[in-house]
Amino acid sequence: MRFSEVMxxxxxxxxxxxxxxIMKISHDLPxxxxxxxxxxxxxxxxxxxxxxxxxxKIAQVERWIGIKKMMLDKSEAESALIRAKDAGHKTxxxxxxxxxxxxxxxxxxxxxxxxxxxxxxxxxxxxxxSMWHYSLKAFIRRDYGIEGASNYSAFAATxxxxxxx
Length: 165
Fold this sequence. Notes:
Elements: H1 3-6, H2 20-28, H3 37-86, H4 92-101, H5 103-149, H6 152-155, H7 159-164
Helix pairs in contact: 2-3, 3-4, 3-5
């Protein structure tokens, strides 16, 4: 896979960004404290996969944010230099107000804000999965530590016990 394929924004839309896998992993994580080490190990891998998925999406969203910033700047400039003049506004203050109320500028701002919110959401999901990853690792360490510290071997059949029979 080429980097240009990862950064591809052709036919890209924030509204159509596929978050299915991220949401599936998020919903699959335990909702109660009933968990064992096998389940924890399974979810550790899932949290890593989810973080990776989020980071891939962030690359596309960051590229989209850059594009939307350029489009907003262009729209503001055209609004101030062309459309405000065509509307009969002459002073700098009138042009500034016109730009703030121009539908094309407002639309570009809206697109940019959606992309920023998406980026924030993905960042928060990464933190969420990271927290789960850390908690699951701590649970496994504690679980194996308890198992190792217990006298489990005293209850298991030993080779000496098996020889006597």
